[in-house]
Amino acid sequence: VPQEQNKITKDYLLLDNVTKKFGTTVAVDHLTISVAKGEFIALLGPSGCGKTTTLRLIAGLEKPTEGKIFLDGQDITNVHPRERDVAMVFQDYALYPHMTLFENIAYPLKLRKVPRKTIEEKVLEVATRLGIKDLLSRRPGQVSGGQQQRAAVARALVYRPKIFLFDEPLSNLDAKLRLEARAFLQHLCKEEKITTIYVTHDQAEAMAMADRIGVMDQGKLLQIGTPFEIYHRPNNIFVAGFIGNPPMNLLTCFLKQEKDLTIIVGNEFELDLTLPLEQKFSFEKLGEKYLMLGFRPEHVKLSSEPGPYAIPGHLYAIQPLGAETLITLQVGTSLVSVRLFTDQPPTFSNQMYIHLNPNRIYIFAETGERLWP
Ligand code: ATP
């Protein structure tokens, strides 16, 4: 039946209301994620938000306190890790120290009784692609941390598991290798169409690699969506503040109604937002409450002249970064970041105006929830 097929395809991996407690610590809190076959999902969040525990639950290294996990149409909640056919690359590599890199990478193939010649071909191919071909006769202790990490990635890539689980696999690589390895991993996961869950606290890595990003905080999934959705339509202040470099500017403000006008009042600025907000807000509900005005550093312009959607600020710092210039301004007691993609920044004076684009502003409730747009 097509509909059933569709359901199975859609929920290739399903975490169904999964909770994991360690004593009184709730590491994962009623998490539901549905992953399609071949999808690349990044789990993003600060340290301690439950990313690693989520991966370990999928791998079977932890058992859920509540909830169920399904993979490829099978309930794997109580299936032994070895029988789940998932490959996990840990933060700390977990290579066998007494084996050479070759033997480490070959291990999953050996377990599956692949012929020796095929093993040699496959190990050589993946080692070449990861740039560790010349190190295959060494033991993990005889190569650098970054090379160990690449060997761990190679060991996961050498056979085709049902799912790849990556726990910050690039964190020990230097900046250049990291960018290369990022492109390589993304290319490989896509080309091989292997479903991937990739844990990172690096929002740029998540944005660059993933089909969808799940943002976690305190064991909860706050939002899951495409990088575009997460960037343009963050559900709440936490997601807005976690994505972007520098992240979204957030200024405390409140709404004021004057005749038919909707004015947003901040610390040392007032903006008439009547037109962009289209009278959407109920003043009975929001008129006296604190709100957050949000705008991204890359969505504003800067000049020494005022304008209809301009916030005055004092120049605090200018950082020329080559293709762009990062400018920090002080607005009231807050610092605001502005990113200008030009090698000809405006003439700076102490008092500058940050010109907002009314189509690119956000308003969040005090509770954090997005109210606009
Ligand atoms: P990081 O990015 O630092 O690795 P994380 O998002 O992966 O963090 P987890 O390692 O999943 O977070 O931890 C989530 C919470 O569960 C933390 O508060 C952590 O201290 C706790 N925790 C994780 N493993 C255990 C354990 N075995 N026993 C007790 N508490 C644990």
What does this protein structure show overall?
This is ABC transporter related protein. Keywords: ATP-binding, Cell membrane, Membrane, Nucleotide-binding, Translocase, Transport. Pfam families: ABC_tran, OB_MalK. The protein has 373 residues and is α+β, with helices and mostly antiparallel strands. The chain has 2 domains: 2-239, P-loop containing nucleotide triphosphate hydrolases (Rossmann fold, 3-Layer(aba) Sandwich); 249-372, Beta Barrel (OB fold (Dihydrolipoamide Acetyltransferase, E2P)). The chain has 11 helices and 21 strands. The chain has a 6-stranded mixed β-sheet with strand order 6-7-8-3-9-10, with helices on both faces. A 6-stranded antiparallel β-sheet has the order 13-12-11-14-20-21. A hairpin with a 2-residue loop joins strand 11 and strand 12. Mean pLDDT is 87; it is low at 1-9. Adenosine-5'-triphosphate binds next to strand 2 and helix 2.
Mean pLDDT: 87
Main sheet summary: 6 strands, mixed
What structural class is derived from the secondary structure elements?
alpha+beta
Question: What is the radius of gyration computed over CA atoms, rounded to a whole number of angstroms?
Answer: 25 Å
Shape: elongated
The top level CATH class name of the largest domain:
Alpha Beta
What's the CATH topology label of the largest domain? Rossmann fold
Strand order of the largest sheet: 6-7-8-3-9-10
Number of strands: 21
Q: How much strand content do the residues show?
A: 25-35%
Task: Estimate the helix proportion, in percent.
Answer: 25-40%
Count of DSSP H/I helices: 11
Q: Low-confidence parts lasting 5 or more residues at pLDDT below 50? A: 1-9
CATH architecture classification of the largest domain: 3-Layer(aba) Sandwich
Bound molecule kinds, no repeats: adenosine-5'-triphosphate
Our count of domains comes out at: 2
Keywords: ATP-binding, Cell membrane, Membrane, Nucleotide-binding, Translocase, Transport
Protein name: ABC transporter related protein
GO cellular component, one term: ATP-binding cassette (ABC) transporter complex, substrate-binding subunit-containing
Pfam families: ABC_tran, OB_MalK
